[in-house]
Write a structure and sequence with these properties.
Low-confidence stretches: none
Strand content: over 45%
Mean pLDDT: 87
Order of helices and strands: EEEEEEEEEEEEE
Distance between the termini: 50 Å
Helix content: under 10%
Radius of gyration: 16 Å
Number of strands: 13
Structural class: mainly beta
Shape: globular
Length: 153
């Protein structure tokens, strides 16, 4: 069964969260109920590009519009993934199995890296991380504050 919806209004897409726009302004990507959809910026029929049990959220287009970064638990824990705008060639970028809490993925200007905020519940704090799109270890860009010192590491 294919899921699709038609949208012709000018208001935000009902129920959509964190919509992303391609650099050329022609296509929107958004997540509803754990699936990612694409829709022409002028309205029309939304098409699911991810489906099923995994929760896929927070799509972000690459600077050239050829990739979408997104968060997904399809590997068991939430991780950072990339795929083509048609949903093909999905590939896991981060390999965490400690169930990290990621928020707001975005691309570096040159399209070679991904930035994402990681929440640490035991510290009640966020850190900004950078990961190479090709995979591999990430690096902390902005660390959380050390308790009591006010110093950023």
């Amino acid at each position: 069964m294919r899921r699709a919806a038609t949208y012709t209004g000018t208001a935000p897409v009902p129920g959509a969260r964190l919509a992303a726009l391609t650099p050329d302004g022609r296509t929107l990507a958004f997540a509803i109920l754990g699936d990612i959809y694409v829709l022409g910026a002028n309205g029309g029929r939304a098409r699911a590009i991810t489906r099923g049990l995994p929760v896929d959220t927070q799509p972000a287009f690459s600077p050239d519009g050829r990739w979408i970064a997104f968060l997904s638990d399809r590997s068991g824990a939430e991780n950072l993934w990339v795929m083509r705008p048609d949903g093909k060639d999905a590939r896991q970028v981060t390999l965490h199995d400690d169930d990290p809490i990621f928020v707001s993925p975005s691309w570096t200007a040159d399209g070679t890296g991904l930035l994402v905020s990681r929440y640490w519940p035991d510290r009640n704090a966020y850190e900004l991380w950078r990961y190479p799109v090709s995979g591999g270890a990430g690096e902390v860009v902005v660390a959380n504050r050390t308790q009591g010192t006010g110093v950023l590491w």
